[in-house]
Amino acid sequence: MGYSNVNAQLLTVPVYLSAAVVFLITARLSERWKVRGYFVIFNLVTMMIGKLPHDLFLLGMLTYQATSSLRLLPVLALDTLLFSSLLPVGLVLSHTVHSD
Question: Angle at the Cα of 35 (from 45 to 42), degrees rounded to 5?
């Protein structure tokens, strides 16, 4: 894509920095309010919405180049299966008992 190794690595810094800020804010607020379920659900739904363009791109690749990109079909299926199971798992984990 025309980027050097260092530039490509530096382009990932804003993504990880913003994720760290959201993580710290979520951790602080969920600890202060003693409510974790709403934060887990919000973050999982946000992740799924952010992942939607990637899935649509893979689906577009499958329909555009049907013969050469059939190898992407298992990747899309596994990706969808794994991330669709995160919301129920997050709901179960968010209702764990926290004893003080």
Answer: 10
Expressed as residue numbers, the domain containing 28 is 1-33
Residue 25 has pLDDT above 90, yes or no: yes
Contact between residue 94 and residue 37 where contact means Cβ atoms under 8 Å apart: yes
Q: Are residues 53 and 28 in the same domain?
A: no
Confidence of residue 45 (pLDDT cuts 50, 70, 90): confident
User: Do the beta carbons of residue 70 and residue 84 sit within 8 Å?
Assistant: no
CA atoms 40, 19, 30, 98: torsion sign: positive
- Tokens coding 20: 């760290």
- 3 state DSSP class of 3: coil
| Same domain (yes/no): 51, 23 | no
pLDDT above 80: residue 48: no
